[in-house]
Structures are given as C-alpha cells and as structure tokens.
Amino acid sequence: MKRLYFIISILFLCINLYSHPWKPSHYVIVDTDGGIDDIRAITMLLASPDVRVLAITVSPGALSAENAYLKVRSLLNSYFHEGIPIAINRTSTFKSPEFQSALESKWGIENGINPKDAPDIIPMINEIISAEKTKISFICLGSMSTASIALKSIPEFGKQVKDFIWSADGYEDKAGFNYIIDKTSSVSMLKQEIPVKIVRNFNRDSDFYNVELLNSIDSVKSVYARKISLFFNSSSAKNHKFSYAATDEMTSIFLHYPELFIIKTMGNISDCTPSDPGGLRQSAIRILKGETVAKNQVIKEFPADTSFYFSDLSGSVNRIIENYGMDEWSSGVLANELHRHLGVFAIIGVKMGIRAREYFATGVDEFRVKSYAGSVPPVSCFNDGLQVSTGATPGHGLLTVINDPPVSPSAEFTYLNRKIRLTLKPEITEKVTSELKEINFVYGLDSNTYWELVRKNSIKYWLSMDRHEIFVVELIM
To answer: How does pLDDT run across 160-170, given as a tens digit for each residue?
Structure first.
C-alpha cells in the first residue's frame, strides 16, 4: 500500500511539473520611492522574461509615497501592465524632500490617477504571498521601511521571502540617503536572519550611460528600451548629471548576473560592488532585449527575414513586428500553422492572449483561460490563437472552452486570484462575421476563392487591428 501511495505521489508531481515546463527564475516584489533611477530599475525587471514582478509598493523617499504612486501607476499603464498591483506605505513618517528632478520626470500619463485608490501595503502583500507560493526576492530601491513593516506584520512574509535586495551605499555606510530615510528600519533589517544583499551604485564619478550604451539602447526594438531612451532625451534627465549614473538599476543587473559583482559576505549580509563596467553595460542591453532566458523550445530564434514568408505576407512582416512586437508576430505565425490556414479569428485570439499577458505582465503557462468562443467555426478558431499566445492549452489543463450559447470571441483570464474578461468589441465582431458570411454565401467553403479571400482579410486585420484598441477589458475580481 505504501508503495502505491508513493507511485501516486510521483505521478502527481510529474503532472504538476509538465503542466508548467518553464517558470521564471525570479519572483519579486519591488519597493520604490519614485527616484529618477527607479524608472530604469523597474523597467529592466519588467523587460526580463526571467523575472516576474508580482507587485510594486511605494514608500516616501525621493518623492512622497503619493507622488511615487503617480509615477509607478503611469509607468505600468504605459506598458499596459494594468494588472500589476501597487500599494502605498502610509505608515512611514519620513517627509520627502520631493526632489525636483524626480517630480519632473515623466514615467507615463498621470492624468486620472488617484493615489487614494491605492490599497495599503499590508493587505496587498499578504494577498500576493497567499496566492503565489514561490519564494520571492523583496527589492528595496529606497528605504527598508516597507520590508520592515511587512516582516513584523505578516507571519508568512518571513517564510516566503528568500532574500532582501537593497540599493544602498554599502554595509558600513550610515549616511546614505536610502539608509537615513528610515534609520530604525535599516538597523532592524540588517539584524534579522533573512539574507540582505546590499547592492552598491556604479562608480558615480563616471557616467555608466555613455554615448555607446545610449546608442545601443536606442537600437533595441522594445517598449522598455524605448521608455529609457525617452527618459534620456527628456530635459529632466539632460539637466541632471545623476541621470547618467547607474544606481538603483544595479539591483536589476545583480539579480540576473551576480558574477559581475564583488560580493563580501558577513553573516546574513552581503556587500555587492559592481566590478565589470563592460559586462554590466552588455547585461543591461541583454535584459532590455529580453534575452535573459530562451523563449522557444525548439528553435533558437524566430525568423524575421521577410523572404522566409510567402509573398502575400512578406510585405507586412516588418510593419506587424514594428507595430505589435515579435511576441505577437511569432504567436500569430505558429497559431496559423497550427490552424492550417490564415484565419482572422485565430489572429484575434492571438492578439487577445498577448493583451492578457501584458495586463498581468506574465509569460506563457501562467494563468487559466476560459473561452466563450465555443467549438463551431469560424468563431471557435479564436481558441487556437488563445492557446498559442498564452500557452494555456487543453493539454496543460489551463484552457476550458464553454459551448453554451451565445458564443462570442471573449475569454476570462485568472491569475493570482485576480480575474479579467476580454471581449472583442461588438462592432468589430459584427464586421468580421458579416464579411465571412458574405464570402461563404458567394463562393462556398469548398471554393479556393473563399480561402484566398479569407487569407487576404486575415492579413489585412492582422496589420490594422491594434490589440490595445479592439477589446473591452473588464476586471471581474
């Protein structure tokens, strides 16, 4: 009997492993004070597929917690990462100097954002660690106030945090800004048992962001690199030499490449000093490119050469990639190969899946999907696009298809106890289905002309439909 139980246990373990064949190496909660270097640190963490940002907390430091919240929320909205929760540390009594350069820095559009809507740190952090059981790193870009409060207030917090990564001026420094924001928390956190990894700034006497590095960032085709390029082209950055130093973003590089740092360990504290300028700059580019982990399972790199594709599609390849990114392009290609023809609803499913992943800022195989597209073509073709773009497949047990009428190109996505529903806007659904009905009525499904016209329409819609504009996004819970 014991042997039977052992075999069953192993089988369940294997099922769980094969349900999620790939996970990021780092699960993090980030605390920020809204400094001008924090936009780069947070952006690098978001850019890496090997990091999962579970939540962001804001506490007073360079800015007040309320102004820092405006910066972070606007930044996440600009990336369409609306689903990353943000909470405010309203307990800290530190009165921020409200550094002018930080106030003037543009992270995103702040209009319509109200800090009063943000939850407090304790309930939000408690919710996150209750939903995600992977050990996390807590990254402090400002003070250690939030970390200290959470450690004292949430019993499970200390069990689930594997380390604290703190941007500061070294183990022996007692005058650094991040230390003096909350001296009591600094002293307390350096005495507790969980490892604290103090990551020092890059040499402030020399510009980390030299002309070569800035040109390299400009050449990276991603929304994250584009944001950093815009930052350096802003007046607030150009007028402040501190902008070109590398400070809090060293934590992001350290998380990925600790071998680029000289690490001195004293008990539970590690003092980590950047040591390889060339390697650090190359790593920053690698992170912004999203090259921190292999994205594919069979091929090393997805072909972007237009000659690789059929002539009716090759002219649109670069525009689709430029407008919507390589992730949507590669998912669209794979979905239509799986689908065995170019279909507009398959493309719509791809766009919806990518949009849902953006919302939660996740990779593949990380949330459950319930599709309301049914099992009857052409609307059900939408399911193939969903599978490829999200990794939520019937084989993984992450996709459920509802056949109850009325069917529609809509789906619910559940991640960390939060759920959203995305629905193709009714007027677009009506237009697409009417066109397909008309083509079918005139030519019939057995006609080559029907499939040629469907293909032509699919390419047209792939190019013209912006996934940020064609869906209704509803927060369910």
So the answer is: 999 999 999 99
pLDDT one-digit tens code per residue, 101-119:
999 999 999 999 999 999 9
Q: Could you tell me the pLDDT band of residue 292, with boundaries at 50, 70 and 90? A: very high
146 occurs within a structural domain: yes
Between CA 97 and CA 69 the distance in angstroms is 16
**254, 47 in Cβ contact below 8 A?**
no
Element housing 55 (H / E):
strand 51-58
Q: Do 254 and 317 sit in the same domain of this protein?
A: no
Range of the domain at 98: 21-288
Same domain, 322 and 207: no
73 and 213, same structural domain?
yes
What spatial distance separates the first Cα and last Cα of the chain, rounded to whole Å? Answer: 43
Name the strand (E) or helix (H) holding 430.
helix 426-443
Residue 107 to residue 323: CA distance in whole angstroms = 21
Q: What is the DSSP string of 77-108?
A: HHTT-TTS-EEE--S--------HHHHH---S
Give me the torsion for CA of 453, 454, 457, 463, rounded to 10°.
-130
Per DSSP, the residues of 162-207 read EEEEEESS-TT-SSSHHHHTTHHHHHHHTTSSS-EEEEPPP-TTS-
Q: Output the domain CATH number for residue 65.
A: 3.90.245.10
Phi, psi (degrees; rounded to nearest 5) at 378: -90, -15
- The token duo for 51 is 């990091």
Please tell me the number of Cα atoms within 13 Å of 204 on its side-chain side.
11
CA dist 54 and 395 (Å) reads: 26
Domain tally for the chain?
Answer: 2
Angle between helical axes of 426-443 and 344-360 (0-180°, round to 10): 160
Please tell me the pTM assigned to this model: 0.92
Task: Give dist(CA 64, CA 78) in Å, integer.
Answer: 21
Query: Is 311 in the same domain as 236?
Result: no
In terms of domains, do 125 and 271 share one? yes
